[in-house]
Design brief:
TIM Barrel; Maltooligo_trehalose_synth_4; EC 5.4.99.15
């Protein structure tokens, strides 16, 4: 493969566009002049390769060789690139190496595997355990057991049809009676519920509609990346965002191969880091997509003491109906056990089989004679104690699967000798054995751990532990939502030192609430008593109350979102209930419960009682505004490359997908103060890239005076100062800024948002924030671009 051209300068800022049939390349092109004027350097596009028809997101790729026709095809992408370059913008694109859509009629590679079986040249593309399926790939598309669905299965020439599903027939089997015909295929159509326990292909998390791809195979890598690499090499694209690298067999090797193939183009990875987990230093990437930054920025505007009070209130509010979700660590652990025994049961089964094979074939007698049930128990107990997503080849697995975790895991066994299975499993995880079964076990363990962490934390525990909805965000730490200024400054210093060109985000297509919704919710940590009073009023006023956990989440949802169409709230709360999986779920829906939830939401949060919540939000609007503007300015000026999600340059209130993937207007109708702050910061970054780039510096600035803790400030390269207000309600209650002052670096400093305003020396913070609760200062007399 021809190496790509040398890497360009990293972006100064990117702007994320959610492409879909309703918003194709042409629509993106029409927005380019406005987006260029906003001050970003690159457009960040959601996946552009051929996806399932009608897909609203594009992560269900069906053909890596073609640019998606519904978006305008390669011609449309090239036209977008051309108009972007005319306006000084580049393109960064999202790629999906981990999986493809399990949609045979659209996925030609999968179609041929289903038709020709393991002999197909495409069989190596997919992560299939043929032996486990008795030589057949299970396809979970039937609405019931096959015996009850035979009348709906029919042969039509060389294909098998089942309602909208179309499957290829193995050559020469067309004339067989239906039962024998099914047995003769390289696949077995089965009841969709069997995906939980019988599936024999790797999935994306527990989503059976997405089948795992083996990009660790060099030929598969070449085939699945050729089009994107060609577009990079031809200058149509400039950089990459890598979706879900944790699902891959070997992220280290994949990223090294990708780096070589792109010629070192700017690349960020969607890696979710635990609170103190470092990104592997050996990865040849610019950094993460930025969820680690989101957690720190949000934490700045959260009062830890108030968050603890909210937790106490939440426990009392929810306790009469459920005691679940009152402790974060316990909630995660319970969720993990449930996910392993249900959604990921088939992945656990496969891991047990590989572990059994590794033990049975080991030259070490100490590993032999281990019962599968004991290995399963050991695996369950170790997996649920993983506090990060997965170990890596370049890392120390023993530091992640710790001896402490092993000691706790042994407690699940009644007989000490059987507890030895824990040491066997841990030894396989942290060992360096090169036998095929040992290598496969380490890979499968890492992949299963990643899926488990995502499903149990992001998709379950975040919906069960809801004292503060703002904290239940990807990369977040709901058990410790607050971040002190000192912690924030230390984090920024590490980013500037280690990953200065990595991404930062506060809103994405995957955030469960947009940054502005979370900013509003964070204000509740400054007034938990007022929140308690409102809840007491609305609860007394509303007799039909859903379970306490969901009711609490519903009231917070309408507080954070503000005025909105009731159906948006209804949809989000229904998803909340199903994800929590306490009383209903996606696969075991309970209509009476869901109807009760809908009735409660309509009559309560979206009805008359909801007006009391709206009144509290209105009363706290100055504090919400301070958080919204502070979040935006910190995000846009801290170390790293900020990614601005579509529409968020103005105030943007959105809930979990699909609510946050709706097309937006360009330009926004009313950008307001947030629009002014965003544009000013982005244009400054574009005009002074050296101040914010890889060679820049980050210097904390500490205010002095009675309200010093409420001013968060820092300088970039001695040329730009950011200052924001934090915990503004507590500030007002304590008497305001009074004589608090912020020492500025030497020189005269001009307010970027109001150039007529200048400051020198120790600026009075009350003067600094006289117009807005944030300030962006640039050293006066600086020659632009110098």
């Amino acid at each position: 493969m021809t190496p790509a051209r040398p890497a360009p300068v990293p972006p100064t800022a990117t702007y994320r566009l959610q492409l879909q049939p309703e918003f194709p390349f042409a629509a993106a092109g029409a927005a380019v002049p406005y987006l260029a004027s906003l001050g970003v350097s690159h457009l960040h596009l959601s996946p552009v390769l051929e996806a399932v028809p009608g897909s609203p997101h594009g992560y269900d790729v069906v053909d890596h060789a073609r640019v998606r026709a519904e978006l305008g095809g390669e011609e449309g992408l090239r036209a977008l690139s051309a108009i972007a370059r005319e306006h000084g913008l580049g393109l960064v694109v999202d790629i999906v190496p981990n999986h493809m859509a399990m949609a045979p009629r659209h996925n030609r590679a999968l179609w041929e595997v289903l038709r020709d079986g393991p002999a197909s040249p495409y069989a190596r593309w997919f992560d299939i355990d043929w032996e486990a399926g008795g030589g057949q790939l299970l396809v979970p598309v039937l609405g019931g057991p096959v015996g009850t669905e035979l009348e709906h299965l029919r042969v039509d020439g060389d294909v098998l049809r089942y309602y909208d599903h179309v499957l290829p027939l193995r050559g020469g089997t067309e004339g067989l009676p239906l039962p024998k015909l099914l047995d003769a295929q390289w696949y077995r159509p089965v009841w969709w519920r069997l995906a939980r326990t019988e599936l024999n292909y790797r999935r994306f998390f527990s989503i059976s509609e997405l089948i795992g791809v083996r990009v660790e195979d060099p030929e598969v890598f070449e085939a699945t990346h050729a089009t994107v690499l060609r577009l990079l090499n031809e200058g149509v694209l400039d950089g990459l965002r890598v979706d879900h690298p944790d699902g891959l067999a070997d992220p280290d090797a994949y990223l090294a191969r990708l780096h070589g193939a792109t010629g070192g183009r700017w690349t960020v990875v969607e890696k979710i880091l635990a609170d103190e987990e470092p990104l592997p230093a050996s990865w040849p990437v610019a950094g993460t997509t930025g969820y680690d930054a989101l957690r720190r920025v949000d934490g700045l505007f959260t009062d830890p003491a108030g968050a603890r009070e909210l937790l106490d209130l939440y426990r009392r509010f929810a306790a009469p109906q459920t005691d679940r979700g009152g402790d974060w660590a316990a909630t995660v652990r319970r969720a993990a056990y449930g996910v392993l025994s249900h959604e990921l049961a088939t992945e656990l089964d496969r891991l047990v089989r590989v572990a059994s094979r590794a033990c049975a074939t080991s030259p070490d007698p100490a590993l032999r004679d281990r019962a599968p049930w004991a290995l399963r128990t050991a695996l369950e107990e170790l997996l649920v104690r993983m506090e990060v997503y997965r170990p890596y080849v370049s890392g120390d697995a023993a530091a992640l699967v710790t001896e402490r975790a092993a000691e706790e895991a042994r407690g699940a066994f009644a007989v000490a000798e059987e507890a030895g299975a824990v040491d066997v499993v841990r030894g396989l995880v942290v060992g360096e054995g090169e036998r095929a079964a040992e290598v496969e076990f380490r890979v499968r363990f890492a992949q299963t751990a990643s899926a488990l962490r995502a499903k149990s934390v992001e998709d379950t525990a975040f919906y069960r532990y809801v004292p503060l909805l703002a904290a239940t965000e990807v990369g977040g730490e709901p058990g410790r939502p607050g971040v002190s200024p000192q912690e924030f400054h230390a984090y920024c210093a590490r980013v500037q030192r280690d990953w200065p060109a990595g991404g930062t985000v506060v809103t994405t297509h995957d955030t469960k609430r947009s940054a502005d919704v979370r900013a509003a919710l964070a204000v509740l940590t400054e007034c938990p008593d007022r929140w308690a009073d409102v809840l007491e009023q609305v609860t007394c006023a509303e007799e039909e109350v859903a379970d306490g956990q969901l009711a609490w989440a519903a009231w917070q949802t309408v507080f954070g979102l503000g005025p909105a169409a009731p159906e948006r709230v209804q949809e989000a709360l229904l998803k909340h209930a199903r994800e929590a999986s306490l009383y209903t779920s996606w696969t075991e829906q309970e209509p009476p419960y869901e109807e009760a939830v809908a009735a409660f939401v309509a009559a309560g949060p979206c009805g008359g009682p909801g007006e009391r919540v709206a009144a509290l939000r209105e009363a706290l609007q100055p504090q919400v505004r301070a958080n919204v503007l502070g979040t935006a300015l910190v995000h846009l000026t801290m170390p790293g490359v900020p990614d601005v999600y579509q529409g968020t340059e103005a105030e943007y209130r959105a809930l979990v997908d699909p609510d946050n993937r709706r097309p937006v207007r360009f330009p926004p109708d009313d950008p307001g103060d947030k629009g002014a702050v965003t544009a000013a910061a982005l244009r400054l970054r574009g005009r002074r890239p050296e101040v914010f780039g890889t060679a820049a510096t980050y210097e904390p600035l500490t205010a002095a005076g009675p309200a010093a803790g409420h001013c968060l400030a820092f300088a970039r390269s001695g040329e730009v100062v950011t200052a924001v207000t934090r915990l503004s309600l507590r500030l007002a209650e304590a008497g305001g800024w009074r004589d608090t002052r912020l020492p500025l670096p030497p020189g005269t400093w001009r307010d970027v948002l109001a150039p007529e305003r200048e400051f020198t020396g120790h600026a009075r913070v009350a003067d600094l924030f006289a117009r807005l609760p944030v300030a962006l200062l640039e050293r006066a007399g600086t020659v632009p671009g110098a």
